[in-house]
Amino acid sequence: MANTQEIGKLRNLKKLGDLLYGCIACGDCRTAVRYTVGRYKVCPVLEHTPGFEPFFARGKMQIVRGLIEGRLKLSQELANVIYQCTTCGDCHATCHQSMDPNINLSIGKYLDHTKIYEALRADLVDAGYGPMTRHREILEWCKKEHNPYMELHQNRISWMPEGVDLPSRGELVFFMGCTEPYRQPEIIRKTIKLLLFAGMRPALIHPEEYCCGSVALRTGMRDLAEELALHNIRALRDAGAKEVVVHCAGCYRTLKKDYPDIYGQELPFKVVHITEILNRLLVEGKLMLREDFKNGRLTYHDPCHLGRHCDFYEPPREIIKKLSGVEFIEMKRNRTTAWCCGAGGGVKSAFPNLAEKIARVRVEDAKEVGANYIVTVCPFCENNLRSVAEKEGIPVLDIVDLF
After folding, report:
1. What is the tally of structural domains in the chain?
2. Of 75, 172, 182, 354, which sits with the fewest C-beta atoms within 10 Å of its C-beta?
3. Which CATH number characterizes residue 204's domain?
4. Full-model pTM
5. Final residue in a domain of this structure, among 234, 257, 281
6. Which of these ranges, 48-52, 136-140, 280-284, has the smallest mean pLDDT?
């Protein structure tokens, strides 16, 4: 039931001010044209939905203007469209009105599509139209057990290797996240074993570590996201953390980019990605890569959380390139133009068929260049791509699987 007191207030969108009027409706966010590469598709969702304007950025920006100017009202029908977006950021990467680091004009940073979509989702939540039913179920559980997987909080460390006892305090903390402890325990187990083998002994702040809040943020549940974020920041600070190592791409983006905004100041610790640590340990000779990928053709999938949203591209590639006897081959769409896996923005949980269709396109990208392995560093990407790739005989690997 909609909260009539909140309808029309649009408090989250209105905070963005002139940012909402940055779109010039050129349509590059539908099909872009560049002299060097010709025409190419931009929005992964558009290709698998009815294809009308609201399903890609230009239409969404017109909806936002209509809401702000009172020509449109928030509704359940609108929510059903707005939540069919992975918030991958490809529209932002393509848009002429967004920031170009090579051009220093006043229009720089003028338009941030994902920030606008997430603000609109937050306003839909305020009005009682969001999030989607499945999101609501997940986040209600998150309030109770601090994870979105309907699992008990006490089981967050059930993956722990037998005989391993890690401290609960220390300057180096490993932030576990939710997906790996509850859905990919072999990955987090292997990660910790690698760090221990290299002589590092990170702390785990369980039971004080809660969900990072990414799911809540992306689906418009900002109050819950802020509650989770502030809890984790305090817990990490109180544990003496100076460096927080993160594996999950979604957690990394949330801690690195969103937490400082929520906290209102610089974090009392540094956030680093696991591939930065693994690269350093390889250079120092403290770790070695596997040698059974001989004659393999490996490609790398850029997670949207890590790539476009954090401009983090090279460390994972540097690890892959250190493998002996393999060929590293880029998909045609890589880095800023990498095609989304389809799982982000709450799409996987609320619109699983759409997520799988988008994943199928990404797997075709890998097949097109002859890759026989797909490597990535995001558990969401891994799970969604694997649902399609395994049927094609292409293994999807996490970066730690290379060790």
Report:
1. 3
2. 75
3. 1.20.1050.140
4. 0.93
5. 281
6. 48-52
